[in-house]
Design goal:
The chain is an alpha/beta fold and about 240 residues long. Helix content is about 60%, strand content about 10%. The protein has twelve helices and six strands.
């Protein structure tokens, strides 16, 4: 699994070559959703890159398969790609979230990344579904280098896979709540990331929305992890 720096350099090379890449984050929510539906499981595996967005995925890969990989926070990756865009002149389209949050994103870009001022476009995520064709046309007309899709799961993954060939975009990335992180409404510290406790910090910050989700997904993750560890140990014994 690539680390963040290598991934960014590879994305830049593909942009230069005119190739389209899609990025889908893997976390405990998607593991749980994928376990309930083969269609969703295949959807979450359909990206050019699947990044381990959470220390739990890193721990699981090591405990089950013995592989040491690096966690790549989708929110932190998005911020690094915005910085790279400011440096290299890439165009960005921000899709999803309420219009009020996109206004904050625009304000921060105008304040901190002024060279991007004329290289960004926005579309809130609360448009009627029968207007999706117009939204796709709007994105394709702008031809962004980066499209950040801030819908919930699995809507954002469905959008990315279904429309990637129509969007005239070089890199399409599902970002969930990353816009809130970018503008400072959500704080993510490196210690909680290292300890695998970002889910706990996020639950404290937004308990109404996240408490039930993490209770269900983390319980499933622990069950699935123990099951896979047991299966791998049995196979080792038989070998």
């Amino acid at each position: 699994m690539k680390n963040r720096t290598i991934l960014i350099e590879e994305l830049k090379q593909k942009i230069a070559a005119g190739q389209t890449s899609t990025i889908i984050s893997l976390n405990t929510l998607k593991l749980h959703q994928g376990a309930q539906s083969r269609k969703l499981r295949e959807l979450f595996q359909a990206g050019t890159y699947t990044i381990p967005d959470g220390q739990s995925i890193v721990f699981a890969e090591y405990l089950v398969n013995g592989n040491k990989i690096s966690s790549i926070s989708g929110a932190e990756l998005m911020v690094e790609l915005i910085k790279e865009s400011d440096k290299s002149g890439y165009k960005i389209f921000f899709l999803g979230s309420p219009a009020e949050l996109l206004d904050k994103v625009n304000d921060k870009i105008n304040r901190d990344y002024p060279r991007l001022k004329d290289k960004v476009r926005f579309q809130h995520g609360y448009y009627p579904i029968d207007q999706e064709a117009q939204v796709i046309e709007k994105i394709a007309a702008f031809q962004p280098d980066f499209l950040f899709v801030a819908f919930g799961s699995p809507r954002k993954e469905e959008f990315i896979v279904k429309y990637s060939n129509l969007l005239q975009t070089r890199v399409i990335m599902g970002v969930g709540g990353s816009f809130e992180y970018f503008v400072g409404d959500v704080k993510l510290d490196h210690l909680s990331k290292k300890l695998g406790l970002r889910w706990f910090i996020r639950t404290i910050q937004d308990p109404k929305r996240l408490a039930k989700r993490y209770a269900i997904c983390n319980s499933y993750f622990l069950f699935a992890l123990l099951k896979e560890i047991f299966k791998s140990r049995v196979l080792q014994v038989k070998a």
